[in-house]
Design a protein that fits this description.
The protein has 12 helices and 11 strands. With 339 residues, the protein is of the alpha/beta class. Helix 6 packs across helix 7 (192-203) and helix 9 (231-256) packs antiparallel against helix 10 (260-280).
Length: 339
């Protein structure tokens, strides 16, 4: 029997909260009946939504009128957001009342408050945002996706070891390959701190399966299990990939409706085309993890729908189920990261 898991949800975070938060939780509950939820937000808005769902009736609601605005600066959110839906949800994890926090709210505020309340794991200077990345061969992991715009070589090396642990524990890859995102694969190319990180990782090959540099066009080919980048480059890569996915599906839709013969062809290939759309759907890969903290914190896209938010919740479920934080701490403690 699967052990019960309790998740704290920032019910007021995101463009379409609280509706998609509740709907996403309901979808997750059907997939994982053993998961319990605590909703943090306006009880007047939440109660009728939750009571209208058979699977969510009886879920905990922790009332607060306060929430973090999408445009709120992280520094202000930290000072004023302790009693917000996001802040209270994070603190419930810190106190041990929940196993993880999931929010579709302000990314900077979520990272800032998660760092404040949950604290980085010993040996990690900066937590990083990591997420699944679809590839030709399956999935890879990429980090950092926006938490740390300015990085040095040591940050990239720490990201590499956190990514290695994520791929090993959550993705089930025995000896994940690690690559540094760069403008070329040659050793002499790239900024100094990227080349320095590469040299350090090359000297640590007994501890990590470092494969060298990777260019942007190779990411989707699945040549590496983990791609490491600073937050600026990683975020640009992610958003570009998401935009490309929408572009391709849009072109496909137009092509299939351009003529009578195309429409007839669609009827014969409908199942394959629908599978293609699912593989290209960014919502399927929604749910970025804040790696390097003492607890599980997952960030959903703010503009996602219930299906996408449910996938973000499922990322948190997997992290808790696989006992990720405990195993990550063990792995980090055995690694010599002194540089």
């Amino acid at each position: 029997m699967t052990k019960s898991i309790r998740l704290s949800l920032d019910a007021m975070g995101g463009d379409n909260a609280p509706q998609i938060i509740v709907d996403g939780a309901a979808q997750t509950k059907i997939r994982h009946p053993y998961v319990k939820f605590s909703f943090f937000g306006n009880k007047i808005k939440l109660l009728p939504l939750i009571n209208s769902s058979e699977v969510l009736k009886g879920s905990d609601i922790v009332h607060t009128d306060e929430y973090i605005d999408a445009n709120e600066k992280p520094s202000i959110a930290v000072r004023k957001g302790r009693n917000s839906s996001m802040g209270m949800a994070i603190q419930s994890v810190k106190s041990g009342k929940a196993d993880a926090i999931v929010s579709a709210g302000n990314t900077g505020a979520l990272m800032a408050m998660a760092k404040l309340f949950l604290r980085p794991i010993e040996g990690i200077n900066r937590p990083a945002i990591a997420a699944y990345f679809p590839t030709i061969t399956g999935e890879s992991c990429m980090l950092d996706l926006g938490a740390n715009i300015d990085c040095d070589a040591k940050n990239l090396v720490q990201f590499a070891f956190m990514g290695q642990a994520f791929a090993n524990i959550v993705m089930g890859v025995d000896n994940p390959s690690i690559s540094l995102l760069n403008i070329g694969e040659e050793e002499q190319k790239g900024l100094d701190y990227i080349k320095e990180a590469s040299q350090i990782l090359s000297n640590l090959k007994s501890q990590i399966n470092y494969s060298g540099f990777i260019e942007g066009d190779k990411i989707a080919q699945g040549v590496s299990d983990v791609i490491i980048a600073d937050g600026f480059s990683g975020n640009v890569s992610l958003k570009t990939a998401e935009g490309t996915a929408l572009l391709v599906t849009s072109y496909l839709k137009k092509a299939l409706s351009s003529s009578l013969s195309s429409k007839i062809g669609y009827l014969f290939a409908k199942k394959a085309i629908n599978n293609f759309r699912l593989q290209m759907d960014p919502r399927k890969y929604n749910g970025a993890v804040f790696l390097g903290l003492n607890a599980v914190a997952v960030k959903s896209h703010g503009g996602t729908d219930a299906f996408g938010f449910a996938n973000a919740i499922c990322v948190a479920v997997d992290m808790v189920k696989y006992n990720f934080i405990h195993d990550l701490k063990n792995k980090i403690s055995k690694i010599n990261l002194s540089m």
